[in-house]
């Protein structure tokens, strides 16, 4: 039963359900029902332990909760959500949420319900290929009833695109569930979301380690490109071809436009997204063109370049662009959406595209930058994947500068 059909049930019985589930939310050591373990309640627990009524492990858990909880997080819907005890079970409603959980080294056995979309990317989420875990829908189409049956400690959900969260969030909360809303793929929000999720899950150290890696890369790029004179910055045009055969310009933010961060000048700086008029591209006369390819290229073998090569060839052969500098010089690159910052496909990998752009825009300045090695470190160290980029996946293509992919 989906949230849209469950709405009347939740509204009519919300108080009853909420009360029942709230009573079942037991916080070890809490004797007065306020969900907070006080110093007096710790002292009472110590007496119980001395009398053999609770184990030493139970006492340690009570002390831990007293020291560390409650924890309040303001999520990406600007809602204040309070966690009263360690999170042991999680349901997520969007695959990028799980990628963030892997970054934080959350154990797989804490996951008790998954979004449907993880099945679409078997090479990137192999742990769910043979899994019988319940699927709870995805994105805005969430099975509220199924989630309530699972009784997770927390639901990690997409916050929606408007000023308010999706209706299912309120329905879950009305029924007593704890919901944290994070997108886990929007560059401008990502560092803060990782920090907040790390705090909620007692993975502060893991969040810090990742953000040192993430911010370290982007800061190193910014620090070099910020001093480049405007006249030395190449003019850039990024586009994506839709399934309808239309071309759209695309450059979404990664703590500032990714083209700018990488030391380029976007020929469409005012409106970085929208359908392209070919004449505007001719007038802008870009030095470099980046063709973004919407494809799940994680599952390809390293030599399967056709989808990226076709996209580049399409740009190179368009009659209206033949006098553009990028075409005449051959400076046309293809990049796949799994690492491109403008789309949810990228999840936490959006920062890798900035490394590639910097390398393409200023090869001499970034001669020691190795985007593929950065990508590999992310996959191995932060995602725990047995995934060798020398053998698997195709993410960028240029016949001269990425010959290893041909």
Structural write-up:
The chain has 14 helices and 15 strands. With 406 residues, it is α/β, with parallel strands linked by helices. It has 3 domains: 3-18 and 71-202, Rossmann fold (3-Layer(aba) Sandwich); 28-68, no CATH class; 227-405, Rossmann fold (3-Layer(aba) Sandwich), CATH 3.40.50. Strands 9, 10, 11, 12, 13, 14 and 15 form a 7-stranded mixed β-sheet that branches. It has a 4-stranded parallel β-sheet with strand order 4-3-7-8, sandwiched between helices. Strands 1-2 form a two-stranded antiparallel sheet. Strand 5 and strand 6 form a beta hairpin. It starts with a helix and ends in a 9-residue tail after the last strand.
Mean pLDDT: 89
The top level CATH class name of the largest domain: Alpha Beta
What is the ordering of alpha helices and beta strands? HHHEEEHEEEHEHEHHEEHEEHEHHEHHE
CATH superfamily of the largest domain: Nitrogenase molybdenum iron protein domain
What name is given to the CATH topology of the largest domain? Rossmann fold
- CA-based gyration radius: 25 Å
Oligomer: single chain
Shape annotation = elongated
Which class do the helix and strand fractions yield? alpha/beta
The number of distinct β-strands equals 15
Q: What is the percent of helical residues?
A: 25-40%
Terminus-to-terminus distance: 48 Å
Largest sheet: 7 strands, mixed
Number of helices: 14
Number of domains: 3
Q: What proportion of the residues form beta strands (DSSP E)? A: 5-15%
Instruction: Extract low-pLDDT stretches.
Output: 1-24
Proper CATH architecture of the largest domain: 3-Layer(aba) Sandwich
């Amino acid at each position: 039963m989906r949230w849209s059909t469950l709405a009347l049930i939740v509204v009519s019985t919300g108080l009853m359900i909420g009360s029942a589930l709230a009573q079942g939310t037991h916080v070890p050591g809490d004797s007065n029902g306020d969900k907070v373990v006080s110093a007096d309640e710790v002292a009472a627990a110590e007496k119980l332990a001395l009398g053999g009524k609770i184990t030493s492990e139970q006492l340690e858990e009570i002390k831990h909760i007293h020291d560390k909880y409650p924890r309040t997080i303001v999520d990406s819907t600007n809602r204040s959500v309070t966690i009263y005890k360690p999170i042991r079970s999680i349901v997520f409603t969007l695959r990028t949420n799980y990628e963030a959980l892997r970054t934080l080294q959350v154990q797989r056995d804490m996951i008790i319900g998954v979004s449907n979309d993880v099945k679409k990317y078997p090479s990137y989420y192999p742990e769910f290929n043979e899994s019988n875990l319940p699927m709870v829908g995805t994105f805005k189409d969430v099975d509220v009833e199924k989630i309530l049956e699972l009784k997770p400690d927390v639901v990690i959900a997409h916050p929606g695109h408007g000023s308010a969260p999706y209706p299912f969030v309120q329905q879950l909360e009305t029924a007593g569930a704890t919901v944290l809303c994070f997108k886990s793929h929007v560059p401008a929000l990502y560092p803060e979301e990782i920090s907040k999720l790390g705090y909620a899950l007692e993975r502060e150290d893991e969040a810090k380690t990742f953000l040192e890696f993430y911010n370290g890369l982007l800061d190193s790029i910014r620090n070099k490109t910020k001093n480049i004179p405007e006249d030395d910055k190449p003019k850039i045009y990024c586009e994506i071809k839709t399934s309808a055969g239309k071309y759209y310009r695309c450059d979404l933010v990664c703590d500032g436009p990714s083209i700018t961060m990488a030391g380029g000048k976007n020929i469409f700086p005012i409106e970085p997204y929208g359908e392209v008029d070919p004449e505007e591209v001719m007038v802008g006369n870009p030095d470099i063109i980046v063709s973004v390819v919407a494809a799940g290229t994680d599952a390809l073998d390293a030599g399967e370049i056709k989808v990226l090569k076709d996209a580049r060839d399409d740009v190179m052969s368009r009659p209206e662009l033949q006098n553009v500098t990028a075409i005449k010089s051959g400076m046309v690159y293809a990049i796949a959406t799994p690492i491109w910052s403008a789309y949810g496909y990228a999840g936490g990998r959006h920062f890798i595209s900035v490394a590639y752009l910097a390398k393409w825009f200023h090869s001499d300045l970034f001669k020691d930058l190795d985007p593929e090695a950065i990508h590999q470190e992310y996959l191995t160290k932060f995602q725990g994947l047995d995934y060798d980029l020398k053998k698997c996946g195709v993410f960028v293509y240029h016949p001269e500068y990425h010959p290893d992919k041909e």
